Amino acid sequence: MALVLHAGKTNKNAFKALITAEYIGVEVKLVENFEMGVSNKTPEFLKMNPLGKVPVLETPDGPVFESNAIARYVARSKADNHLYGSTLIDYGHIEQWIDFASMEIDANIGKWFYPRRGFGNYLPPTEEAAIAALKRALGALNVHVTSNTYLVGHSVSLADIIMTCNLYLGFSQIMTKSFTSEFPHVERYFWTMVNQPNFKKILGEVKQAESVPPVPSKKPVAQPKETKPKAKDEPKKEAKKVVEKQPAKVEDAEEEEAPKPKPKNPLDLLPPSKMILDEWKRLYSNTKTNFRDVAIKGFWDMYDPEGYSLWFCEYKYNEENTVSFVTMNKVGGFLQRMDLARKYAFGKMLVIGAEPPFKVKGLWLFRGQEIPQFVIDECYDMELYEWKKVDISDEAQKERVNQMIEDCEPFEGEPLLDAKCFK
Ligand SMILES: N[C@@H](CCC(=O)N[C@@H](CS)C(=O)NCC(=O)O)C(=O)O
């Protein structure tokens, strides 16, 4: 008898059991017509999981909830398979990485992603802490997979399945290339896993998120859908009908809402510019010597003062910048949150001074003549800075632009503690 899994078709927690089933050759089928917020709130469902959460696995001996427990159950449902390792220490390590994937990776991706999707309150310091904790965890994972193809031993184990499903939510929804490139071995590990045939069968073609979902506008927090009372004589849903598995679509693995059409960014509607932002970013990145003559000259050759504008910024509360790494992290967080403007902006942020308090000053190039409204609305750091449009007819201001682009030191008479680039 097939095991029946209650969950929607795009739930990454359900994928853990489905991929496990592929590896050991047992049949796990998704229940038919599952509707998030409805099917999981019926009295029958609440008997299986009192929290009304998915996934739940129906077995001949009763239901099991919690996706890791379900995946373990499926993995153990066939004796002598390698998903659980072959020695006590392998078993210990597999459990270790399962907990790590859940508590250090998944929990922090969730704290970053869900508030941005309107589930729970969006609080910038909470987000910052989640991103910092996630980076710490990815850093540790990166070191481990530098010299290990799999988390434990020499083949895919349950730890790889659970880790990959958790990373899948991050990679497909919020961890853009610019975020993950700091962890190249995690990238390699993830892409290797999702391209294994048993993963691919369930996940389909995986695509990395191209942007971080914007901060929700200040509208009421989304509530879980209520269970609609059913008309007495309405025929009961055939809860146990099952459907064949289909590869997942890349969409929100949590609530499975219909995707809303993305409104066009007003900056895309501006008259075309002769300046190609990516060309400038490439020139900046590829110029290793003779920066003034190559990159700076190239910048002004390309610069289109009608299609773009330049802005100086200065942190309003420099006197608070008394600890070097806290100041640098603050700027790092700002650049992270600017991810949503990557198509429309380039920036340099300098942390200046030999002694605290450090000064934070920056230069930004934005598409259009104003600082884009969506950036002001969605990146709370903007209001922590004083902004002044660069007057390019003033040679002194132009020279200041040059010095900021090239990390000129000393800058305004002081050494640089750090220089970060947003590109
Ligand atoms: N720790 C649980 C998490 C389950 C969970 O949060 N499920 C979400 C969907 S991915 C859910 O059912 N939410 C509905 C609700 O909270 O009522 C697991 O791994 O199974």
Automatic annotation (TrEMBL):
This protein's record includes keyword Cytoplasm: no
UniProt domain EF-1-gamma C-terminal: residue ranges: 263-423
Keywords on record: Elongation factor, Protein biosynthesis
UniProt keyword Kinase, yes or no: no
CDD domains: GST_C_EF1Bgamma_like, GST_N_EF1Bgamma
Segments forming domain GST C-terminal: 87-215
GO molecular function: glutathione transferase activity; translation elongation factor activity
Domain of life, source organism: Eukaryota
Biased composition range(s): Basic and acidic residues: 225-251
Region of interest (Disordered), residue spans: 210-270
InterPro entries: EF-1-gamma_plant, EF1B_G_C, EF1B_G_C_sf, Glutathione-S-Trfase_C-like, Glutathione-S-Trfase_C_sf, Glutathione_S-Trfase, Glutathione_S-Trfase_N, GST_C
Record function comment: Probably plays a role in anchoring the complex to other cellular components.
Assembly and binders: EF-1 is composed of four subunits: alpha, beta, delta, and gamma.
Record's protein name: Elongation factor 1-gamma 2-like
Organism listed in the record: Durio zibethinus (Durian)
